[in-house]
């Protein structure tokens, strides 16, 4: 086949190199001449991110790319992540009451043929029942004990428990670059200086400082927040959602462990503060820590104080990362597709950044127009990616709008005027039944119905079931929860710590 499908990716980093590697693998680029993929990357552009968290979908992606898990872990300073622990989201810390924490594990609740475990938990006395994730999930106890989700020697990307990773974002990009180039992607260095359009409004060519003029059939914009092609050249409008998700700045840093034997947490820690939250990600040799906040509710100096107080000292260098929460409603226009930050960004909560890159590139690969107009799938792509953004916005807002904290930021989040009607309607229904799979459309969802359950009931949301609905005898319910607790305790005994397993892998 003659080489007539030329793809040019503008920008490197996680978005650019993941897109390049995925398309090269999907189209079996090496050894065939039907497609040519080139990635243009400027050495002057840095990579945003000080420690990156991911969702379990990353395992399937890496496996599809043919990247060995052990090699990946070693190369990226990675550790295992089994979920997110939320501290102080329901109410402020106070000397006169226990600190509120809840866990969002990646593992689904342990369902059985005999009973609806969520209904069993809801029927239990609120004052005596265990926390939701602790009651229904084996993973809660494993993660709290800083255990890994697997043992040394188990197959790559598989384990008894669901998991993702924490890793160094810049190192991850290098791993993806190496794999993409092995798969046949051409890498050229150069700074984009402009783009010229054809009479029909599509991109005719791009201009670079080092490479001169470059032409392609399809351009993929991975230029980050700058959105050089989809935004600047093609004028795709940006839809801000700051009226829903208020955070728009992050102050990020990396700090070393005080001791090489310091335990590594098996989850991201998300700690609420007066105007947002702080992340704490455990890498192999350091912690990535950041303060996410709303500039409407907190100044940069106040955010620096929050970060300093969280860390306990000021011997670190932090940088401010401003962002506008939102997305472009047209992310495929003509012969240009946006992937990554150029298409949109919401906030770091629940690691949706890499997740959206994975979703976009998978759709692009499946919808790629080998015949017919290059923009033929654009309408379908835009509908699906925008739908995914809208569902994620509802999911992220759910974390905030149930809080009882009394600071202005949290009161504004609980104001119904800031809650999308789609989420309000679900919350009204969930007062009488738990979330289930029929609440969501699979192709638009990044999170399953049980992910919503973990957030709802972690935040003490009340679902009042009618008498007799999925009710299970009390003794049998107690036996069921005792069995889950026993499984969790057994797994905790058998699994190595996160630090121990990473050390074994790196050795």
Please give a handful of descriptors for the protein shown.
6-stranded mixed beta sheet, 507 residues, alpha+beta
What is shown here, in short?
The chain has 507 residues and is α+β, with helices and mostly antiparallel strands. The chain has a domain at 5-79 and 166-239 and 326-390: 3-Layer(bba) Sandwich (FAD/NAD(P)-binding domain), CATH 3.50.50.
Describe this structure in words.
This protein has 507 residues and is α+β, with helices and mostly antiparallel strands. It has a domain at 5-79 and 166-239 and 326-390: FAD/NAD(P)-binding domain (3-Layer(bba) Sandwich). The protein is built from 16 helices and 22 strands. The protein has helices at residues 13-26, 57-65, 69-76, 117-123, 132-136, 139-144, 169-182, 228-233, 300-311, 352-367, 378-401, 408-414, 421-430, 449-458, 474-494, 498-506; strands at residues 5-10, 35-41, 52-53, 79-81, 83-87, 101-105, 164-167, 186-189, 192-197, 203-208, 212-214, 218-221, 238-240, 249-256, 268-273, 276-282, 286-293, 319-322, 326-328, 332-333, 336-338, 344-345. It has a seven-stranded mixed beta sheet with strand order 6-5-15-16-17-14-18. Strands 8-2-1-12-21-20 form a six-stranded mixed beta sheet. A three-stranded antiparallel beta sheet has the order 3-7-4. The longest helix is centred in the last third of the chain and has 24 residues, at 378-401.
């Amino acid at each position: 086949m003659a080489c007539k499908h030329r793809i040019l990716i503008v920008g490197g980093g996680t978005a650019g190199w993941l897109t390049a590697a995925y398309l090269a693998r999907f189209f079996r680029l090496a050894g065939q001449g039907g497609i040519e993929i080139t990635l243009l990357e400027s050495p002057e552009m840095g990579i945003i991110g000080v420690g990156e968290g991911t969702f379990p979908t990353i395992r399937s992606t890496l496996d599809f790319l043919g990247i060995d898990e052990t090699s990946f872990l070693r190369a990226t300073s990675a550790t295992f992540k089994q979920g997110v622990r939320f501290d102080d989201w329901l109410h402020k810390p106070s000397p006169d009451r226990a600190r509120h924490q809840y866990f969002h594990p990646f593992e689904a609740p342990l369902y059985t043929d005999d009973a609806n475990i969520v209904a069993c938990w809801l029927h239990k006395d609120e004052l005596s029942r265990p926390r939701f994730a602790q009651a229904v999930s084996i993973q809660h106890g494993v993660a709290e004990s800083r255990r890994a989700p697997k043992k040394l020697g188990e197959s790559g990307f598989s384990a008894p428990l669901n998991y993702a990773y924490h890793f160094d974002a810049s190192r991850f990009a290098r791993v993806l670059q190496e794999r993409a180039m092995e798969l046949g992607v051409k890498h050229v260095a150069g700074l984009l200086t402009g783009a010229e359009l054809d009479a029909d409004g599509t991109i005719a060519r791009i201009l670079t400082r080092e490479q001169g003029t470059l032409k392609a059939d399809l351009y993929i914009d991975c230029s980050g927040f700058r959105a050089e092609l989809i935004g600047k050249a093609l004028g795709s409008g940006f839809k801000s959602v700051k009226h829903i998700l208020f955070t728009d700045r992050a102050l990020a840093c990396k700090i070393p462990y005080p001791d090489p034997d310091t335990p590594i947490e098996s989850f991201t820690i998300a700690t609420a503060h007066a105007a947002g939250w702080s992340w704490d990600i455990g890498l192999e040799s350091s912690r990535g820590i950041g303060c996410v906040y709303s500039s409407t509710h907190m100044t940069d100096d106040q955010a620096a104080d929050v970060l300093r107080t969280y860390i306990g000292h000021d011997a670190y260098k932090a940088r401010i990362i401003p962002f506008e929460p939102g997305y472009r409603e047209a992310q495929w226009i003509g012969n240009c597709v946006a992937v990554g930050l150029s298409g949109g960004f919401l906030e770091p909560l629940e690691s949706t950044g890499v997740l959206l890159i994975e979703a976009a590139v998978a759709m692009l690969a499946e919808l790629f127009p080998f015949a017919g107009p290059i923009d033929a799938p654009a309408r379908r792509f835009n509908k699906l990616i925008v739908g995914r953004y809208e569902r994620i916005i509802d999911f992220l807002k759910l974390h905030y709008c149930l809080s009882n904290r009394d600071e202005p930021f949290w009161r504004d989040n609980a104001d119904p005027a800031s809650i999308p009607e789609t989420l309000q309607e679900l919350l009204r229904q969930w007062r009488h039944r738990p979330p289930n799979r029929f609440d969501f459309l699979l192709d638009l969802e990044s999170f399953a119905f049980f992910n919503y359950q973990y957030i709802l009931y972690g935040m003490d949301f009340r679902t009042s079931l009618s008498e007799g609905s999925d009710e299970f005898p009390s003794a049998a319910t107690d036996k069921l929860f005792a069995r889950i607790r026993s499984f969790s305790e057994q797994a905790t005994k058998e699994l190595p710590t996160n630090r121990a397993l990473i050390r074994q892998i790196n050795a």
